[in-house]
Design brief:
single chain; alpha+beta; ten-stranded mixed sheet; three-stranded antiparallel sheet; elongated
């Protein structure tokens, strides 16, 4: 048995329909463990049945008590330091936060500190807790809104699998240039890196790049702009920003994909992750969180309305 610190524990009482099944079948059906996670559990003694270790090919029976311990893993050290963000919700498995604009999610060569990761590590340290920083989703530096952070490997793997199967729902608000002709629509255009500008993404021809699908709905139309609600079916880097630019509606304040002549007071791209919905790894129910339009985007919308009435 490992001496690693136990981060959290899952328990399951074998039900009648699983009587006589192999332990690995029950684990897979109940918890949807990835192949990598199953291998890790076999090697590390994470699973016991009625307090005893068992081979994963052994049979379990009705009312057997399966206990799974999730251990802490080693990872690169992230310096805890106070960085602004808001905790929306938290439990044994997940941390839901609101990231402000201007904050990078994870340390990089260009941003070695002052990131959301540094702030989250500081938040946990102040509470006397230790977890690895495992963002399930990421937001660009100047995009605000909701993010999910998994507190252990199983929660992260469980939610990553949801994303692969497109069951994870993410909704954004954006304010973009020009009225959009159709009230609703879907942008289905593959995206790839620009070989001449590594940080830049662009739409490429069908059959190339990576599939990318964005659904949109116009919330409010202005004479020179649109406020839109968008839902991602895929999660490519800069997807919304690239897709809106590709259809002729770049986002206000976008320094990379925008027009550069917005003449309106917003100091970052007008893009906000407003809601998310996921199937919780422990509760086995759908959970949803939302947050309203941030103040700078409210002011932008108000300014656009005012300009239309001058």
């Amino acid at each position: 048995m490992t001496n690693q610190k136990v981060m959290t524990t899952y328990s399951h009482l074998v039900e009648e329909q699983d009587d006589g099944k192999m332990l690995q079948q029950v684990l897979q059906n109940k918890f949807r463990f990835s192949r990598k996670m199953m291998t890790r559990m076999k090697l590390s003694g994470m699973v016991t049945v009625n307090g005893e270790s068992m081979f994963f090919t052994a049979r379990v029976h009705k009312n057997d008590h399966i206990r799974i311990q999730i251990f802490q893993e080693e990872a690169a050290y992230i310096l805890p330091e106070p960085v602004p963000f808001v905790v929306i919700d938290e439990d044994e498995d997940l941390l839901i936060v609101a990231k402000p604009p201007g904050v990078v999610v994870h340390p990089t060569n260009g941003y070695p500190n002052g990131t959301l990761a540094n702030g989250v590590m500081h938040y946990w340290k102040e509470r006397g807790e230790t977890y690895l920083f495992r963002p399930v989703t990421r937001l660009d530096r100047d995009t605000s809104g909701l993010m999910v952070i998994a507190k252990h490997a199983y929660a992260h793997a469980f939610l990553a699998e949801q994303m692969k199967k497109k069951r994870y729902q993410r909704t954004y608000y954006a304010v973009c240039h020009h009225p959009i002709a159709q009230a609703t629509g879907t942008i289905h255009m593959p995206i790839d890196r620009d070989p001449d500008q590594p940080m830049y993404r662009k739409v490429v021809e069908a059959g190339h790049g990576y599939p990318a699908i964005t659904h949109y709905e116009v919330v409010e139309q202005f004479s020179s702009a649109s406020w839109v609600r968008l839902q991602l079916e895929t999660g490519r880097t800069h997807q919304i920003r690239v897709h809106l630019k590709a259809i002729g509606h770049p986002i206000f304040g976008d320094a990379l994909y925008g027009t550069g002549d917005d003449h309106l007071e917003i100091n970052r791209q007008a893009l906000h992750a407003t809601s998310l919905k996921l199937f919780h790894p422990r509760l086995r129910t759908w959970k949803e969180w939302s947050m309203p339009l941030p103040e700078d985007m409210k002011q932008l919308v108000s300014q656009l309305r005012s300009n239309d009435h001058v």
